[in-house]
Write a structure and sequence with these properties.
The chain is an all-alpha fold and about 260 residues long. Helices cover about 85% and strands about 0% of the residues. The protein has one domain (about 1-25, about 35-255). The chain has helices at about 1-30, 35-45, 50-75, 80-120, 125-130, 135-170, 175-185, 190-215, 225-255. The longest helix has about 40 residues, at about 80-120.
C-alpha cells in the first residue's frame, strides 16, 4: 500500500515538474538569453556529436532489412512489399526508438550527473538565492535541446537507413535512384512521418525531464551522483519503451 501511494505521488510530481517545464518554455524564448548557451551546447552534444554512431546504425539497419527481406519476399513474388516494410521498420518504429536509445546512452547520464554535481556543490541553491529559477535555467534548455536533437536525429536516421537499404538493393537488383525513392514515396504517408516525430518529441521529454529530476533528487553525498545517472538511464529506457508501445498501438487503432 505504501509503495503504491509513493508511486502515485512520484507520478504526480513528475507530471507537475513536466508541466512547470513547459510553462517555462515561453519565458525562456522571451528572455532566456543567459541560457541559450546551454541550449546550444546541449544540441551540439546530443545531435552533432551523435551523428557518427547514428549514421553507422542507420546504414546497418537499412542494409539488414533489405538483405533479409528482399530474398524472402522474392520467394513469394512480393518484392514490392519491401518498400512498405522499410517505412514501417525504419521510419515509424525503429528510427524513433533507436535514436532515443543513442540519446539515453549519451545524454541521460550526462544530464543527471551534471545536475547532481550542481546540487552537491550548492550551485542550484546559489541560483535560487539570487532569484534565478533553476527550472527555467537548467531544465528548460535541456528539455528543448534533447527534444530538438532527437527529432533531428530521427529524421537523419530515416534518411540514412533508407539510403543504406538502397545500397544493398543494388546487389540484388540494380535500379535507378529515382525509381527506388519514387516507390518509397508511394508507400510513405504523412501519418508515418507524424507518428515518428510525435514519438521523438515524447521520448525527448521523457529522457530530458527524467534526467533533470534524477539529478535534482540527490541530497548531500557525492556517492549519490552516479546512482542518479544510473536511475536516469534505466527510467528513460523503460519509459521510452512503454510510451513507444502505447503510441504504436494508438496509431494502429486510429489507422485501422
Amino acid at each position: 500500500m505504501k509503495n503504491s501511494s509513493a508511486g502515485i505521488r512520484l507520478l504526480f510530481y513528475n507530471l507537475g515538474f513536466f508541466t512547470r517545464t513547459l510553462r517555462g518554455v515561453g519565458f525562456f524564448i522571451k528572455s532566456g538569453q543567459a541560457s541559450y548557451r546551454i541550449l546550444t551546447m546541449q544540441i551540439f552534444f546530443t545531435f552533432v556529436q551523435a551523428i557518427g554512431i547514428t549514421t553507422l546504425l542507420a546504414l546497418g539497419i537499412g542494409a539488414a532489412v533489405n538483405a533479409i527481406g528482399v530474398p524472402m519476399l522474392a520467394s513469394i513474388s512480393q518484392q514490392e512489399l519491401i518498400y512498405s516494410i522499410l517505412i514501417i521498420i525504419i521510419t515509424r518504429e525503429l528510427g524513433p526508438l533507436l535514436t532515443a536509445f543513442i540519446v539515453i546512452a549519451r545524454s541521460a547520464t550526462a544530464i543527471a550527473t551534471e545536475i547532481a554535481g550542481m546540487v552537491i556543490s550548492h550551485e542550484v541553491e546559489a541560483y535560487v538565492s539570487v532569484g534565478v529559477d533553476p527550472i527555467e535555467h537548467l531544465a528548460v534548455p535541456r528539455f528543448l535541446g534533447v527534444t530538438i536533437s532527437l527529432v533531428l536525429l530521427n529524421i537523419y536516421f530515416s534518411v540514412f537507413g533508407l539510403a543504406g537499404s538502397f545500397a544493398v538493393a543494388q546487389i540484388f537488383n540494380a535500379m535507378p535512384v529515382d525509381y527506388y525513392f519514387s516507390n518509397l514515396l508511394q508507400y510513405l504517408v504523412i501519418q508515418d512521418v507524424l507518428i515518428s516525430i510525435i514519438k521523438s518529441i515524447a521520448f525527448g521529454a521523457i529522457i530530458s525531464i527524467g534526467a533533470v529530476i534524477e539529478g535534482l533528487s540527490v541530497e548531500r553525498a557525492s556517492t549519490e551522483v552516479p546512482v542518479a545517472g544510473l536511475r536516469a538511464v534505466s527510467n528513460a529506457f523503460a519509459g521510452c519503451i512503454v510510451v513507444g508501445i502505447v503510441l504504436s498501438v494508438l496509431y494502429y487503432i486510429v489507422m485501422v
